[in-house]
Amino acid sequence: MLSLIILKLAVVLHVFGAIGLVGGVAFNTLVMMRALKQIPPAQSAVVAEKVGQGLMWIGTISLAVLGLSGLVRLYFYGIFESGRTLAFWTSPYGWRLALMITAWLILVVTGALSAYWYRTVLTRKLPFAAGLRDLEERRAAQARISAIQDRLAYVNFALTIAAALGGALLRAGV
Ligand code: HEM
After folding, report:
1. Cβ < 6 Å from ligand 1: which residues?
2. Residue 121, pLDDT above cutoff 80
3. pLDDT at 130
4. I need a surface site. Which of 53, 127, 160, 168 has the fewest CB within 10 A?
5. Distance, CA of 47 to CA of 36 (rounded, Å)
6. Cα distance between residue 144 and residue 118, in whole Å
7. What spacing in Å lies between the alpha carbon of 47 and ligand 1's midpoint?
């Protein structure tokens, strides 16, 4: 009985995790990034910092929930046993699951990278004694990282859609 409740809870949480991740990533890529390009750099930096923080939380929590609930489901579906053969992962069920897990793993890496850049470059405060040269260097680093983050956002969007598609195909049994 308890294990059934845990499994049902994992199924519900997995769906909510997917909603949070797809929603957060889609909002960032399709709405935020476009809107930021249409406002002046000074305002855009402030909005990006404030809204970006919230989106980062949604993404981190969703990824954690998806990973944990996914592992619980793998355990209850006996995939820790059946997944030991290559035949499992080359079957339609197996490769769709592999697509979901691989996309998740890459999203964890790109998410950690983005969070690191956010803290160390994008929102780094300079010491009081910083000179014009430090300011220039920070501005150049921020522009470089922002350009990489923009491209990374599209990669994250594609990965999220691929993972959700893998899950949807599994569910539909096609
Ligand atoms: C980017 C991350 C992920 C997304 C967007 C995602 C999305 C989905 C969706 C939409 C479903 C189908 C609906 C459902 O049954 O809940 C699903 C099912 C599932 N997911 Fe994920 N998932 C992700 C990551 C993971 C990870 C990391 C694991 C394993 C560690 C995992 C394991 C599973 C399992 C076992 C199922 C059930 C398949 C079945 O019905 O037989 N997922 N996922």
Report:
1. 11, 14-15, 18, 21, 66-67, 70-71, 73-74, 77, 100-101, 103-104, 107, 160, 163-164, 167-168, 170-171
2. no
3. 77
4. 127
5. 8
6. 12
7. 33
Tens digit of each residue's pLDDT (9 = 90 or more) over 122-148: 777 777 777 888 888 888 888 888 889
Place of tokens 């780094």: 124
For residue 73, give the ligand 1 atom closest to its CA: 35
Residue 5 Cα to ligand 1 midpoint, Å, equals: 18
Q: How far is the CA of 43 from the centre of ligand 1 (A)?
A: 38
Q: What angle do CA 110, 112, 117 make, to 5 degrees?
A: 95
32-43: b (≥16 Cβ within 10 Å) or e:
bbeebeeeeeee
What does the pLDDT read at residue 138?
81
